[in-house]
Amino acid sequence: xxxxxxxGIVLSSAFKRPSTRLYPTVPRKWQDNTRGHVEIDPEQCILxxxxxxxxxxxxxxxxxxxxxxxxxRMSCVQCRSCVESCPKQCLVMKNExxxxxxxxxxxxxxxxxxxxxxx
Amino acid sequence: MTRSHExxxxxxxxYSDLLVKAKELAEGGYRAVQICATxxxxxxxxxxxxxxxxxxxxxxxxxxxxxxxxxxxxxxxxAFIFENEVHDLFGIEFTDLVxxxxxxxxxxxxxxxxxxxxKKEVQ
Amino acid sequence: MGKRTIVPFGPQHPALPEPIHLDLELExxxxxxxxxxxxxxxxxxxxxxxxxxxxxxxxxxxRVCGICSFGHSWGYAAAVEGLMDIEVPERAEHLRTIxxxxxxxxxxxxxxxxxADAMGFESLFMHCWRLRExxxxxxxxxxxxxxxxxxxxxGGQFKDIPKESLAEIVIILENMRKELLVVTNVFLDDTxxxxxxxxxxxxxKEDIMKLGAIGPTARGSGVNNDARCLDLGKYKELxxxxxxxxxxxxxxxxxxxxxxxxxxxxxxxxxVENIPEGPVNIPVKGMPPMGDFIARxxxxxxxxxxxxxxxxxxxxxxxxxxxPTNANIPILVKVLQGCYLNDVTMMVMTIDPCISCTER
Lengths: 119, 123, 360
Known about the structure:
The structure holds three protein chains of three kinds. By secondary structure, chain A is α+β, with helices and mostly antiparallel strands. Chain A has three helices and five strands; from the N terminus they run αβαββαββ. Chain A has a domain at 30-110: Alpha-Beta Plaits (2-Layer Sandwich). Chain A has a three-stranded antiparallel sheet. In chain A, strands 1-4 form a two-stranded antiparallel sheet. The longest helix of chain A is centred in the N-terminal third of the chain and has 8 residues, at 7-14. By secondary structure, chain C is α+β, with helices and mostly antiparallel strands. Chain C has helices at 57-61, 69-84, 90-118, 122-143, 163-189, 191-197, 205-211, 215-219, 250-274, 324-336, 344-350, 355-359, and strands at 4-9, 21-27, 30-37, 152-153, 156-157, 291-299, 302-310, 318-322. In chain C, the strands form three sheets. Chain C has a three-stranded antiparallel sheet with strand order 1-2-3. A three-stranded antiparallel sheet of chain C has the order 6-7-8. Chain C has a two-stranded antiparallel sheet with strand order 4-5. The N and C termini of chain C lie far apart (41 Å). At the B-C interface, strand 2 and helix 2 of B face helix 7, strand 6, strand 7, strand 8 and helix 10 of C.
C-alpha cells in the first residue's frame, strides 16, 4: 500500500529546526559573489561613458560637461556588464541589494577634476 | 576539435511552393518547429522549420509586401500559434487560418509593432 | 445533451503560476472545447536586438525566462558563436553542461512543488521548494545570481569555477539525493497523488507526433524529442540516454520529470569527473557576418529554438527564440477536449506552462 508516504518527512520535520530564516530579525548572509549593487570609485573614473553604452537597461548616464555619473538603482538589473567593460576598473559590484523603496532611487556621483601630474 | 553544431540546412523556396512542400512534410510525419518572420525595410522574410527525428528542414520564403500568405495550418494544425503571433506582431495576413484570433492573440498597445516601414529610395 | 456553458479560466487563477487564459466550453462537467489565449505579459525582448549589440543581447536573452535563464543565454550564445564561427573552449562547454543540468534540477523541483500545490498538497510543495533552495544557493555561491546567473557570454563563460567548488557541488548533490528519494517517492507512490494523476489526460504517441509536442510531455508518451541527443553540449560524451515513459498520462509525465532529476545529478557528477583544465573563454573580435544560424537546446520544458540573423554590423537583424511552451500549447488544447473540469488544473500543470517565456 502506498498511502501516506509523506508521514516520515512530516514526523522528522517536527523535531528539526526550521529551514527558513526569521527574516527581519536574522539578517541574510551574502555570498562573496552575490551581485547586489554597483558602486563607483570617483577618483578613478575618466568619464569615458562606456558603462552607459554597455548597459542593457539604460540605467547609467554619464554627463561629461557636469562631471557626474548617475545610476537609476531601480532600473539596474545587476548584470555586471558595466563592471566588465570599465577600462579603469573603477566600478565594483557590492553584495547588498538595493533596499525596496516607494520612490525611484537615483544616485548621482560627482567626479572630481583630475589633478594633472605635471612633469 | 569538432564543431558542436548541427548541420544548417536553409533552403530558399518561392512563395508558390510553400503549400506543396508543407503537404509533403506533413505526409512524411514531420512536425512544425517554428515560424519566424523577419521584417526589414518593409520586406518580410519567413522561416519555416520542420523536424523529424532530429533532422531539421528549414524553408525561407520571401513575402512580397501587402501579400496574403496561405496558412499551413491545414497540414500542421499546431502552427496556428505561430501564424497568429506573426500576424499580430508583423501584420502579415494569412488566408485559411484554421483558428484565427483576428489580431487578438497578443494583447498589444499598438497594432503590428514589429513591422518596419519601407526605406524611401533616394533617386 | 446538456446546456453548453463557457467558463473563463485564468489569467488569474490559484492553480496557474502564470497568466494564460482558457475559454472552456462545458457540457455539464465535461470540457468540449478549449480556446487558449495569451499575450498578457508580452515584453518584446526580441525587438531589443536593434538597440543592444550582440554581446549585450546575451544579458537580455537570459531574462526571457526566470527559471531556465541559463539555458536561454546558452542557446543564444551558441547561435551567435555558430554564426561567427567561434570555437568555445572545452572547459566552458563542460561548465555549460553542468550549469544547464543544475537549472534542470531546480526547474523540475519547482514544477513538482507547483504540481503538489495545484492538487492541494501544501506540505509536499514546501518540501520540494526547500530542496530547490540548495540549488539556488549553489548558483549564488558560484555565479553571484540566484536566478539570473549572467554567467554566459559570447565565446565562453565569464569566470572559471575552481575545482574545490565543483567538488562541493557534487557533495551537495549527493546529500540531496537521499532527501530527494524520500520526497519524490511521495509523488510516485502515494495513493492520493496517484488517484489524482493516473489515467488522467492520456496522450497517444500519434497525437504527440501530429501536434509537435516536445519535452517531458512528449517523452511521457514515448516520443523522443530530446534535443540533448544533438551535438550541443557534452551530452554525447557522457553517454546520455533520454528517459521515456509509455503511458502518456499525467502520472507518466510526472515520472519522466522525477527520473530526469536523478539523471541530471548523475550527468553532473560524471561531468565533474571528466572536466578538463583550460581556459573558459576566448576573446571575441569582429562583428557577426551576414547570414543566419540556428541552435537548438533542450530546456527543462523541452526543446528551445534560437535563430539569429546577422548583417555585418554589431547589431543583429533578428534574434528569435521559440520557447518550449510555445510548441506545447496545441497539445494542451487537444488534451483538454473531453476531460472533466476538475482535471483541467492537472492538465495545464503537467505540460509545465511557462507563459512569460512563450510571449517573450
